[in-house]
Amino acid sequence: MAIREIRVIPDPVLRTPCDQIVVVDDRVRGLVADLIETVDNDGRAGLAANQIGVSLRAFSWNIDDEIGYVLNPRIVELSEDEYQDGDEGCLSVPGLWYATKRAWYARVEGMDLDGNKIVVEGTELMARCLQHEVDHLDGFLYLDRLEKSVRKKAMRELRESL
Q1: Is residue 86 a contact partner of residue 45, using CB atoms and an 8 Å limit?
Q2: pTM for this structure?
Q3: Which fold would CATH assign to domain 12-161?
Q4: Nearest 5°: CA angle at 11, between 7 and 17?
Q5: What digits encode the pLDDT tens for the residues 59-71?
Q6: Binding site members for Fe cation
Q7: How many CB atoms lie within 10 A of CB 9?
Q8: Distances (CA, A) of 71 to 58, 68, 96, 100, 155
Q9: Among residues 8, 13, 40, 49, which is most buried (max CB within 10 A)?
């Protein structure tokens, strides 16, 4: 287990869709241990594998004193008529926080290290985390979800900070 370095924009691994995990082996077990140890830090709500340079579909979370992980997650349900529009940030986009519209409720299905199906769901912060981390695994950043004018401002601020 190790606390891994967080990859930051413009690292191309953040824009590359991650591969499905086909076999749970020692490499995947080590990845999960590293994801859990790395997310277990104040101010960290979630961490996708590509944020530590591994292009596999896995992420960990640290919400309300609960730490967990999911392999091969996919969003299977989002609230259709209830949204939240709170500030969102990202470890891979340090220092930038912008209001980002997300579904108020999200449900993700995936598997654990034993290959068993697991369901992770929640509202508000947990829902935001699930959507944010699955976006990472699909090669997207929260900046991609901003309204056009806000995104333009965010990208300008990002360029100035690099």
Answers
A1: no
A2: 0.95
A3: Peptide Deformylase (3.90.45)
A4: 95
A5: 999 999 899 999 9
A6: 90, 132, 136
A7: 18
A8: 4, 11, 28, 25, 31
A9: 49
E strand segments, 64-152 = 66-78, 83-84, 87-90, 93-99, 102-103, 105-111, 117-123
List, by residue number, the catalytic residues: 133
What are the domain boundaries of the chain?
A: 12-161
Residue 13: what are its φ and ψ, rounded to 5°? -60, -25
Amino acid at 69: Y
Strands 46-48 and 87-90: what pairing? unpaired
Query: Around Cβ 106, how many Cβ atoms within 10 Å?
Result: 24
Q: Give the C-alpha separation, 117 to 109, whole Å.
A: 7
Of 5, 23, 152, 154, residue with least CA distance to 89: 154
CA-angle at 137, arms to 132 and 139, nearest 5°? 95
